[in-house]
């Protein structure tokens, strides 16, 4: 997979495509960290989606590492 970062204002987006090494696990690892942060707060994907004003499917894809993720979203999850 390739990982590309696009600057949009002050947000950066992690964009994922087809697997290639050595970055093939970057967004998946990020998704797992987001999932762990959500679980530490005892939140369901549904609850997190409501807080972030995102669709549950989007949260699922972020946690799988297949959805673009902004630092703003990560900050909201950790906040």
Question: What is the structure about, briefly put?
Answer:
This protein is α+β, with helices and mostly antiparallel strands. The chain has four helices and three strands. Helix 1 (26-40) packs across helix 3 (56-64) and helix 2 crosses helix 3 (56-64).
Attribute tags:
79 residues; alpha+beta; 3-stranded antiparallel sheet; 4 helices; 51% helix; globular; disordered N terminus
Structure description:
This protein has helices at residues 26-40, 45-52, 56-64, 71-78; strands at 3-8, 11-16, 69-70. The protein has 79 residues and is α+β, with helices and mostly antiparallel strands. The protein has a 3-stranded antiparallel β-sheet with strand order 1-2-3. Strand 1 and strand 2 (11-16) form a beta hairpin. The radius of gyration is 12 Å and the shape is globular.
SSE blueprint:
Blueprint: E1 3-8, E2 11-16, H1 26-40, H2 45-52, H3 56-64, E3 69-70, H4 71-78
Antiparallel strand pairs: 1-2, 2-3
What distance lies between the first and last C-alpha atoms, to the nearest angstrom? 29 Å
**Sequence of strands across the biggest β-sheet:** 1-2-3
Count of beta strands:
3
Main beta sheet: 3 strands, antiparallel
Portion in beta strands? 15-25%
Average pLDDT for all residues? 75
Which class of secondary structure composition applies to the elements? alpha+beta
Give unreliable regions as ranges: 1-7
Which shape, going by the Cα principal axes? globular
So how many helices? 4
Element order, helices and strands?
EEHHHEH
Percentage of helical residues?
40-55%
Rg, nearest Å: 12 Å
């Amino acid at each position: 997979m390739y990982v590309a970062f696009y600057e949009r204002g002050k947000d950066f987006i992690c964009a994922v495509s087809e697997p290639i090494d050595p970055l093939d696990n970057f967004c998946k690892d990020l998704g797992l960290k987001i999932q762990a942060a959500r679980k530490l707060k005892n939140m369901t994907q549904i609850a997190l989606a409501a807080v972030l004003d995102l669709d549950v499917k989007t949260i699922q894809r972020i946690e799988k590492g297949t959805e673009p993720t902004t630092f703003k979203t990560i900050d909201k999850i950790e906040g």
